[in-house]
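Why Small ribosomal subunit protein uS7? Reviewers of the renewal asked for a concrete example.
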Amino acid sequence: MRRKIKNKNEISPDFMYNSEKLEKFINYIMWSGKKETARKVMYRAFDIIKEKTGNPNPLEVFDLALRNAGPATEVRSKRIGGANYQVPREVRAERRLALAMRWIRDAARGGKARPMHQKLADEIIAASNNEGSAIKKKEDTHKMAEANKAFAHFAW
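Here is what the prediction returned.
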């Protein structure tokens, strides 16, 4: 018997760029329920992206960065006959977006000695150019999936 489908929370789009992805990313950045602070960080980062890229619409750069940072395959652990195998699997679209957002956020938080909006803008620009820590994480995930391709027949 199949599991009951969970009701997903509907996220209203942000008021400045009218984007649901951006509002979800603001929620990812948020710490301790301080959403307004997270919004300020994100919009300041978008101002920096406008300056550095010369693109009047930073949402395009942001969407490109999310597409570039999202992995196509990942490994999942599966126990078979007393041994654990790392089985490569395709990543669903929702999880791909969630991983990309998490990796960009964590890469921006990892930098030191600069305000968060500057680190975030730099990481988004780097990801849109297929560079940076989030892209490295994606490539490592793809390499691990490629290395364990021999166990693909265990996929469920």
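The mean pLDDT is 92. This is the kind of structural detail the renewal will allow us to pursue systematically.
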